Amino acid sequence: MTRFRPCIDLHAGQVKQIVGGTLDSASAALQTNYVSPLPAAHYAALYRDNRLEGAHVIMLGPGNDEAVHDALQAWPGCLQVGGGITDANARSWLDAGASKIIVTSFLFPDARFSQARLDAVLEALGGDTDKLVIDLSCRRENDGW
């Protein structure tokens, strides 16, 4: 059986499919495969109506908060939220209706895992590990990761 995990990637408030590795500090380097004319809330409702569980919304850079809030209103308690999650904002996304928060780069300052940062996120979540997803995505560079 194939398991489908629906995703809503947001960049500058729009649903986009971005070419992997092109999102960095130089916005001129950004390449997209697709920009949807429909808002994030449309996809959240589509996933809800089709009972597609495990969906997540990822904020790729700033300017996405409103679109995420709209998606969470369309399917409260059923979307995971990631992108820019820190100990300072993790709780607020759960309070806004996220089922879980996804933490990635915040846990790796200077490309090194920080137990102190993980502990801070968990403290912000009241120690509720069921509300935390740690994304350990990595990309091969030459002979390393």
From TrEMBL:
Gene Ontology CC terms: cytoplasm
SUPFAM superfamilies per UniProt: Ribulose-phoshate binding barrel
Segments forming a coiled coil: none
GO molecular function, one term: 1-(5-phosphoribosyl)-5-[(5-phosphoribosylamino)methylideneamino]imidazole-4-carboxamide isomerase activity
Family designation: Belongs to the HisA/HisF family.
Keyword annotations from UniProtKB, A to Z: Amino-acid biosynthesis, Histidine biosynthesis
Protein name: Uncharacterized protein
Organism, scientific name: Ophiocordyceps camponoti-rufipedis
Domain of life: Eukaryota
One of the protein's GO biological processes: L-tryptophan biosynthetic process
Keyword Amino-acid biosynthesis attached: yes
